[in-house]
């Protein structure tokens, strides 16, 4: 108690406490003059072989590039062949699309196609010859109706920030990018219900809502580029989930276009509506393979301005779990984040991330926990957190801790957790896994992996403990096939054995389409395939993704 | 400010502030010695013609009955004929079921069938000759596999507390009651994830969780009888929705049996799982027409013990809306209920509900609002509410108000809101509508209905303002066809025109299956029908409900 008490001081409300770069997910938007709104750069990461270049753009103009060490490895669906039932694009097709969309929205320019063909990590690359940019639902409908009749395969694309190869072509699929459909249609201040087009950028929506006193119920690192349609299609989780829940609860309505061009109006703006099957739910998380989402209706919470952050140390993982339980009880309604990292994570950050300082320098503890609260009253909320921390210290759950005293300290605490992926990428090769596991079993995988790999690799565990989401990262100086073979399929088998999910929030995409059986039973996969064939009989929408080809053909 | 300030006094934590009878929905369980747990009666309401008898049971034994005035009228699907493709039950069928379930779980007793054939309101009555009580998933699977092969229609039944005729047979369907499947399978205290069988009674689950420091994320009047499987199948809303959101967000996993006997294991226990389509969502709210839910995994929040309640008066509906907006902003994380009633509602309660006292007797105001907060710290939460109320009074949003000072006062405030259906039923005939509407438009319907009906009826409006859920009730001394013709289809057309839902939380069942087009587009209804036919090609599951017969055959 003595140790913690002196540092329980006034905490400044940290409105923008997180940097706009969230490294668990990609971001192309980084504001280098934070708060000024003047200089907005768009770094774009380009990768050739195993060398990764960050290309910097200012207001769309290329201004230079810098070398960064980013290497990602993991299972990739391989040995795929183009579906022989798909047609190949011809001049008549292009002219037809020009007739619908006009010349400027039918893009064949090689440079622009090169960008759209490659994912953010440069791990997946397609060879599409055509990018279409519809401006309204009717155009999306006409595009799909035509593609379906011609059996032209289609990839719906939003901000192209996905991590599993879901948003880029595999072969020569036509890319349909929703970026021109970014209008806010309505906002009801009493209910907090926002209706907008699917191409709206998440950060723009959040900025619009800020003026109205509301926030988006989700937040993720890619917010400067990702589209709300893509968020919904991938059932994005992100940082606010522990507080506001999943998109399955927050999305109130959708408009989606089926493969045959049928427009499904499910765009309800009601919190309660029990009239028939809740079809919109099928489109949430189906990664664009059942239809293209064109409009979204979403419930947004009121924006609360009082935020507090504590950086704490625990002796063991059991204490972290118990602390989570107590935080849910005692902080209840104000708890907004509960993140953990292990000592290996801390070492990694201190060694490889410039300007990082250990907030608890007296010792290297086994585990660290970040607890954030967000509420409507700064003084009440602070007192509540302080009382909780004192009690937890007395009870022996935490052995050291610091509470952020101002925005800078808050940012530096978050920087440790959020800078981890960057630190890992600087340390060498990273084998990355985004897993969901029962909280009590979560750290067992990290420990088993350490035993399995011995001295050949560093195993690092951190993640959203409050959501049961583990980011398992394995670091080696160089890429090594034998290390990968020791990790996979073991990591998937272990996760499956403990009833976990091999994809907590990133989706399956191309990367894990064939691994779905680790998390889903044969009967459910079979039903998914039946629903896919019902909604998209020619399987033109986002082919080769989500489901194994074997269950579709 | 002067008016409110003197009554802002200490509020006792009202742990059980609501009576177990919630009159918007049926309840068969009423604890007459509240808190003692000794005398638990199970009133069962029986209706013949237009006279309603409440039959009282003590621990299952009939102990007497009393006359109550309950009359419900509304649209009922009529002119239905039994689907000619369905078979009629024979002795071989019964013997087959006895072979699977044993004699005692194959029920042909007339008295027991009579109960199971009739809904809670005695508005819908079937003529089933067989009630089956499976004890495990495998038995449910064998029952359905057999029924499907024989084309015997099936009604899944939980607590049979539905209000739209969804849980009883229409003709001679076989009733499959899940009441014997009521085991708690697991509970994870760290994550708050509960897994149980579908026949578990909501109140029992809540009692189990109370010992663990958690609560169910839903609460409704029928909790003493309703099953969690039925709650999920009907996507029950209830009292805690404004705080904890819908079941689409809180249900983490399901096990369900399809019409052909296939067991779908979707029983995840993870907050995050993005591996393929979220099939379980299809079963939430599909009213047992796509499969029988046999197990449920649900996220439960920590139980918070500090509850405050204010009863307030507003001059107009616009002030109610603005107060809601402010409450969401200022009370934010502790707001747990926001209910409203109009002056006609108050008059109705004062005139017909014994022992009711107006908490604000100095005047009859146009609108009344109940605001409840639930948090983790009694003194902080109380101060927060008081500060908010003073500010709202100064700002002119509320013109009078009282804060409950103890459990009794809290109960008496809630009694006004919760006693409304009872008061209405005592006043004469009630035409009841459960609608979802954009908050700003909600009261317009009440006013238009008043103009439309003139002196022929009393129009009363109240409901869950925080969820946009209006309970529109029209009261006349006697039932009158001409009044009904003035109400319907006008009420549905008005709701449809303003993008509302004709069923906020009760579902469509038999009552509104043919009215689905008022809330859903033809394309979505068509897709619902396709999904129904995909999952249940012989349409044996809960026939005649949810969807119009015309789209299925």
TrEMBL record, chains A, B:
Q: A single GO molecular function, which one?
A: FAD binding
Which Pfam families does this entry report, sorted A to Z?
FAD-oxidase_C, FAD_binding_4
Q: Which Gene3D superfamilies match?
A: 3.30.465.10, 3.30.70.2190, 3.30.70.2740, Uridine Diphospho-n-acetylenolpyruvylglucosamine Reductase, domain 2, Vanillyl-alcohol Oxidase, Chain A, domain 4
The top EC class, named as a word, is oxidoreductase
Q: Which cofactor does it need?
A: FAD
A single GO CC term for this protein reads:
mitochondrion
Q: Which UniProt keywords apply?
A: FAD, Flavoprotein, Oxidoreductase
The EC number(s) given in the record are 1.1.99.39
Top-rank taxon = Eukaryota
Report which reactions are catalysed by this protein.
(R)-2-hydroxyglutarate + A = 2-oxoglutarate + AH2
Stretches assigned to the FAD-binding PCMH-type domain: 124-303
**InterPro entries per UniProt:** FAD-bd_oxidored_4_C (IPR004113), FAD-bd_PCMH (IPR016166), FAD-bd_PCMH-like_sf (IPR036318), FAD-bd_PCMH_sub1 (IPR016167), FAD-bd_PCMH_sub2 (IPR016169), FAD-linked_Oxase-like_C (IPR016164), FAD-oxidored/transferase_4 (IPR051264), Oxid_FAD_bind_N (IPR006094)
> Which family, according to the similarity comment?
Belongs to the FAD-binding oxidoreductase/transferase type 4 family.
Under PANTHER family, the record lists:
D-2-HYDROXYGLUTARATE DEHYDROGENASE, MITOCHONDRIAL
Name the chain's protein: D-2-hydroxyglutarate dehydrogenase
What is the phylogenetic placement of the source species in the record?
A: Eukaryota, Viridiplantae, Streptophyta, Embryophyta, Tracheophyta
